[in-house]
Amino acid sequence: MEKRGIPRQAGPIGVMLTEHDQGRAYVRGMDEAGKRFASGDKTSLKAALDNARGYAELLRQHIDKEDNILYQMADQVLTTTDQEELLSRFEEVERERIGAGKHEEYVKLVEDLEREMVQG
User: Fold this and answer.
1) In this structure, are residues 66 and 91 in contact, taking their beta carbons and an 8 Å threshold?
2) Residues 38 and 19 occupy one common structural domain
3) I need a labelling partner for 59 at 20 to 30 A (CA). Which of 23, 28, 50, 83 fits?
4) Where are the alpha helices (DSSP H) in the chain?
5) Exposure of 51 by Cβ count < 10 A (0-12 exposed, 13-18 middle, 19+ buried)?
6) Are 74 and 85 part of one and the same domain?
7) Inter-residue contact 56 to 22 (CB < 8 Å)
8) What is the residue-level pLDDT of the chain in tens, covering all 120 positions?
9) Count: domains in the chain
10) Tell me, what DSSP letter sits at residue 68?
11) CA separation for the pair 32, 38 (Å, rounded)
């Protein structure tokens, strides 16, 4: 998108990248609190929950911005070839980093959890 004229600084790309950093901080906070909790520090449960809630809220807002701002801008400036290349590269990174079939596994997990919640 930057190559097609969307600025990183003072624009939606910069905001999204900042939120990625915030998300990683929440995940680190959950991980650290989880480790402390597993070591017997019961007071760390609040930190884990606070980080989880913060992360969930950040994701809700972040995904809304992606869907309603960033992706619409991308559709306006990226060519069909650009988008095909991006999809190919995303799939390549997914295979290399999380392994083939993992995405589908996670989608199924979320669907199973949603069903479980509805059935109560």
Assistant:
1) no
2) yes
3) 83
4) 12-38, 44-65, 71-77, 80-97, 102-119
5) buried
6) no
7) no
8) 999 989 888 889 999 999 999 999 999 999 999 999 999 999 999 999 999 999 999 999 999 999 999 999 999 999 999 999 999 999 999 889 888 888 788 888 888 888 888 886
9) 2
10) I
11) 10
Nearest CA to 32 among 16, 18, 44? 44
Two tokens at 60?
């809700």
| Two tokens, residue 61 | 């807002």
Q: Which domain holds residue 22?
A: 1-78
Burial of 33 (C-beta count, 10 Å sphere; 0-12/13-18/19+) = buried
